[in-house]
Task: structure prediction
Amino acid sequence: MNALNELSQLSYALDTFYFLICGALVMWMAAGFSMLEAGLVRSKNTAEILTKNIALFAIACTMYLVVGYAIMYSSDAGGVLPRLGMLIGAENSLDTILAGGDDAPYYAQRADFFFQVVFVATAMSIVSGAVAERMKLWAFLAFTVIMTGLIYPVSGYWTWGGGWLNKLGYFDYAGSGIVHLAGASAALAGVLVLGPRKGKYSKDGAIFAIPGANLPLATLGMFILWMGWLGFNGGSELKISDVVSANNVAQVFSNTNAAAAGGVIAALLLAKLWFRKTDLTMVLNGAIAGLVSITADPLSPTVLGATLIGAVGGVLVIVAIVTLDKLQLDDPVGAISAHGVVGIWGVLAVPLFNADANVSSQLVGILAISGWVFSASLIVWLALKAIMGIRVSEEEEYSGVDLAECGLEAYPEFSSSRK
Result:
């Protein structure tokens, strides 16, 4: 075998391995979302939200395998309507690799599937926290089937699958819009249909805080997300086996970390100035906002530029959380603000440092992704409400959805229901 073929095989192996490791880091984010959400809900709802997170991950993996991946990647370039398909096809790259041609693939298709499927689960995890503490478990899981098998793959085809938004010039390196805004749009539709938790708002418009039960757990979740995000953004370079790609990965890692730090610092300062207190929950969302902000383009900015982009996200998330509360849109974990409002900022920030992107294409992408996901999700939520109901009873909400939906409690030794 000649040296060219040997080099091609080595590059293929290295890039595939890197892709898989980054996918594993993104999978670790599922634990981060689980811990963050479990810490920000009341103790009587902890077991149910953990059940939702592990179940949604399994459903997302299965639905994306069965139909989602084929919808997202098996259609014509530049199109609007993807073709329906099933499964992910055979791995037929070996002969091309051995030939060493310019068209040789640089990673295994199965690695691409694994990396993409954990992104789908991430989008669905955003919905979980926003509808926490009052939604029926099985209604949520039914929505998960449609979201991960159809809704997300359609807009994914428009963008990463080579569809019309990609042809238009929409730029979204790792998914501020494609993943995070999509998840937040589905969450917003669910919150509108579901309504707020009992006792959150009074008839005269007063807002009552409902504190989470375990802030150390929420903080652990945030740090897990921060770490996993390095794979989320770093893996989106797609390869690492040449000097340019390796340098790009290093830049992406540095910018991702810097943006998160900028989000935290901005949230710290604004919370102190606005509330006269350093609210930990706002700081946690500041970190996530910084990460979401830079995800649309973690490569082009300088490290200082990434820090500033993240800082703007840290400010926006606090303003958005307060504004949604005033509108009586009850989001227990701030998911719509951190992933939706800040996701829009991340997409719009791309042209600031990337000459290949333009504001008009980015705006069209924002409207198309949010419009499609919100509209389709709203239809599904309303259908589920009519067919099976999506909200637990007042008595079940008061007692906690752990007992109503799971028949057990996360912290039974502290339960007032035990005699």
Q: What stands out?
A: The mean pLDDT is 92. The CA atoms of residues 175 and 270 lie 27 Å apart. The chain has one domain: 3-89+96-239+248-414.
